[in-house]
Amino acid sequence: MAxxxxxxxxxxxxxxxxxxxxxxxxxRLQRCEACAHVYFPPRPFCPACxxxxxxxFKAAGRARLYSYVIHHRPVxxxxxxxxxxxxxxxxxxxxxxxxxxxxxxxxxxQLDMELEVTFEKLxxxxxxxxxxxxxx
Amino acid sequence: MRRNQVAVVGAAETxxxxxxxxxxxxxLHADAALNAIADAGLKxxxxxxxxxxxxxxxxxxxxxxxTPTWVDGTSVGGCSFMLHVRHAAAAIEAGLxxxxxxxxxxxxxxxxxxxxxxxxxxxxxxxxxxxxxxxxPASMFPIPVLRYMKTHGITHExxxxxxxxxxEWAARNPRATMKTPITVEDVLNSRMIAYPFRLLQCCLVTDxxxxxxxxxxxxxRDFPRRPVYILGTGESVETPMVSxxxxxxxxxxxxxxxxxxxxxxxxxxxxxxxxxxxxxxAHLPLFGLGDLGFMPHEETGQFIADGNTRPGGKLPxxxxxxxxxxxxxxxxGMYALQESVxxxxxxxxxxxxxxxxxxxxxxxxxxAASGTIIFTNEK
Lengths: 136, 379
Prior knowledge:
The complex is a heterodimer. Chain A is mainly β.
């Protein structure tokens, strides 16, 4: 990645488990123990039923490409053109990410293509979950 | 809220629009406010209710020298002013104030005295969107477009036509920033900003402002201008993170606010003579036509491509030229409201002859918020 570095997330008490997960190369989601709803981004209660009884689990890391843009303007830490994507995880929630490991073109980036998570270490504390075309 | 109990009696934009290098942001607010006061034939001391966004109400109220008994600082992005109109109408009906001033202004281009907009690294946006290289609205707002196109069968050419048609309206408006006619080819050959959107599908960046004055319909009869009544209103919010929208096939905030306003107004879609749909980017009029219930989303692209929204078409849309060609200082909702009021007064540069009902639909953030106001000039 070009200098200067991309925007760096700063964890909060409610999101720490997510960033500890990515540091261990795990994508962690939350599931409500009352109604089984799986959700993202992190919070210590269920946004579907308001239960505070929620658990953290390791997601499969599989997703499909829901939508994206290919950004052509300069942004710190990126070499345009680059994709900014929203992926739909196998477990249901969607998240923003970048699609890597393929050309940043409309031809290579097909909606609904299958993706798998890959981890990009920014520093000792922060590792970002990115996605690449699924192998096989 | 009851229909037609509150009216717009003053409406004006800043004296200049476009590039205004000799005025700070708060002075742009004041310029618009003073123009609206003059339009209504009022004095600043007549104002007892005040609303604004981005800037705090205390900042602008004190700069203007007014002492309100009701304030609203709702700041949900570009549709904040639709929400202000709705809240002001309720406040006037409840007797909390009699005469409300709503101001908007931004030094969006010249950047003088502008409040910086910051996203903290520990906010949810800062943690789960910013690290992936989103920056300006152009990198975020178009993210749903490809999914919307695939679901509803919308083409790149149809999305280009949105910009083409709005330029046709702008050509009739002496105050529009961009007036030169464009073609679909011009749009599709303009500089790529964030695929699938090119320069001509993204809003302008300008300086400017606008202000509205509202009072009870009963008092409105005594004002110099033809009253423009509030017939129906709606509002909602969804999420500040575009990635967390319920769906990219439509906007939940639109689907709540729009139908709410139609129900309150008690009108059908065929009753609408004039329509404004906040167009920060070319896909918004399609989302608006579908989510407000004018037609299924699948038909929106062809409806615009067929010329139904252009001058002389059956549903005149964004008749000032819109955010794509008229002006866009950052929070365009106020200019959409101004155009609806002009159309209802019968004084718009591209006047829709005989128009009696105008629907004005706004968006805030990246589909984060929405407000809909339905105006009429008949009580």
